[in-house]
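Researcher: Let's do a round of design. I'm pasting the structure tokens now; please hold your answer until I've finished.
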């Protein structure tokens, strides 16, 4: 899942070298934190959060295939 988020984010941003995805696991789900350059934040979120929602949907579908729960958080 981490690699999937990384590939999608790098395709969207202007500074792909600054894309960092950290994965933490708790008892309920896997949490993926996505960090990008400040200037690329809008490109990852999109108008009214549409791109962020699309990223979450793709990851959720991939996680459902493996019967896991994954949460994607975009942090500054």
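Researcher: That's everything. Go ahead.
Model: Designed sequence:
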């Amino acid at each position: 899942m981490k690699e999937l988020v990384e590939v999608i984010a790098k395709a969207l941003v202007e500074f792909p070298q600054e894309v960092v995805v950290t994965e933490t696991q708790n008892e309920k789900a896997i949490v993926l934190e996505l960090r990008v350059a400040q200037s690329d934040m809008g490109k990852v979120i999109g108008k009214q959060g549409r791109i962020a929602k699309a990223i979450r949907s793709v990851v959720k579908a991939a996680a459902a295939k493996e019967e896991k729960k994954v949460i994607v958080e975009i942090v500054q």
